[in-house]
């Protein structure tokens, strides 16, 4: 691990390893800009972050990235970007909080050639156990909210996500699962929907596979 | 001395002894530019910031004049430890050509006639300002501004700088601006001009030679302008329907908001002695501003050769230059894959918000200027 990787989460390291050098990248819900700043320095990527939270916009500027403040529930990505503007459109841990994940994924794969999406897996065994035995909505490390105050309005499992991709004609280029420490294990490889807490997917449109 | 202020300041004058050929086709044979500087220019002259002023602004951006209680117009954002940190930057404020605070303008004497220029002063555009400000840059020995910064009409000058002199600025900070005025904006300006020109004391713009000033027209223009700088929400909160006394059922000032507007108008026309011809000129410069026009009316094309990194800032309640107008600027920069950051600041202060304290605005502005400072080793 290089010195600049030291503080980067395994989730971000995994994404970074998927990004070809010199790529154009858009990071939706870029938070404090850590991932894009890393991609700029480690992968020579360029591009923009988008973020709604004012304090995170400030942190992103401090981290030296281009950040556009925007509410993706009110604006279309096509208001900002033309088709095929990016090699990758990334969205980490934000799919479940947007109004219409299906429509957003469509837009992401319109302005970008590929997308990398991560989200908490609702099919994780602890979630299933809590719902089955306590009859209550799960509250776990990755889903620390109550049902009434959670921003996660569109939780899904790996299987749900893959079903959506199939329906939309999105090809899954790569897939990985990690736990809360964002590490992978043999068990997760065998039973991802049961043992994986966080899903990472790289997807593209099937009709562009050869493009 | 006040804390966190650049303290006592004095304006300087730069005489430009070469003609300016204006966009309007006139020639100004020679002219003065009045300016102020704060902070120290570093050895490699890389830490200079130019601040462009808005319609009624001037070169007195920060600090105090001897015996004056009121600081410069952007005191809150320019000074030691402030977003434009004078401990790190060398800051230049300049009064635009055509202004009325010392730079050559309609109230100056036309050397050809020995009388005030008055209405004969050539129409000046934002492009002409960039040309004249560039002379000041050369005079100060600055190769490249670390940033050119401005709000409102000042932000328009920043955009023009980035387009016309792409290699002369590293960064462009465009606050509460628009890429061109809307029909509504132009209409507001026209009402303001009509107010001034229909004042019996206007005398076709030769009021100085008549020993009068068109106070009522100017005050009315300012009242209208001021009204458009505030938001409906803010006026509601500030004044509501509060009365000065009680309803008298006549045309005297009854509501507090009337009293406030009249005060603003009077203050502008009488105490600050703003020149009416300058006001006309500045509103015209606003109306004419349309950098895309030279590029097939395509703002994206206009930005094609821009080199500066951009920070674009808008305010939610600004209906004079709304966030959507700033997003047009952002979109055109994105079209060109330029470096740009954009923040839409939550504020109830309307267009005036760019002058007022606001923690998020300060945070964004400081973070960006810190990046600029680190880039130029300041």
UniProtKB/TrEMBL annotation, chain A:
Signal peptide limits: none
UniProt xrefs under Gene3D superfamilies: Vaccinia Virus protein VP39
InterPro entries named in the record: Methionine_synth_MetW (IPR010743), SAM-dependent_MTases_sf (IPR029063)
Domain of life of the source: Bacteria
Name of the featured protein: Methionine biosynthesis protein MetW
Organism of derivation: Sulfurivirga caldicuralii
UniProtKB/TrEMBL annotation, chain B:
MF terms in GO: homoserine O-acetyltransferase activity; homoserine O-succinyltransferase activity
The AB hydrolase-1 domain, residue ranges: 47-355
Residues with site note (Important for acyl-CoA specificity): 320
Transmembrane feature ranges: none
GO biological process: homoserine metabolic process; methionine biosynthetic process
EC class of the enzyme, as a word: transferase
Domain of life: Bacteria
Pathway: Amino-acid biosynthesis; L-methionine biosynthesis via de novo pathway; O-succinyl-L-homoserine from L-homoserine: step 1/1
EC id: 2.3.1.46
Keywords carried by this UniProt record: Acyltransferase, Amino-acid biosynthesis, Cytoplasm, Methionine biosynthesis, Transferase
Active site residues according to the UniProt entry: 152 (nucleophile), 318, 351
InterPro entries: AB_hydrolase_1, AB_hydrolase_fold, HAT_MetX-like
Catalysed reactions, as listed in the record: L-homoserine + succinyl-CoA = O-succinyl-L-homoserine + CoA
GO cellular component, one term: cytoplasm
Residues where substrate binds: 222, 352
Pfam family, one: Abhydrolase_1
Record localization: Cytoplasm
Cited function: Transfers a succinyl group from succinyl-CoA to L-homoserine, forming succinyl-L-homoserine.
Family as reported in the entry's similarity comment: Belongs to the AB hydrolase superfamily. MetX family.
SUBUNIT field: Homodimer.
UniProt name for this protein: Homoserine O-succinyltransferase
Source organism of this protein record: Sulfurivirga caldicuralii
Gene label: metXS
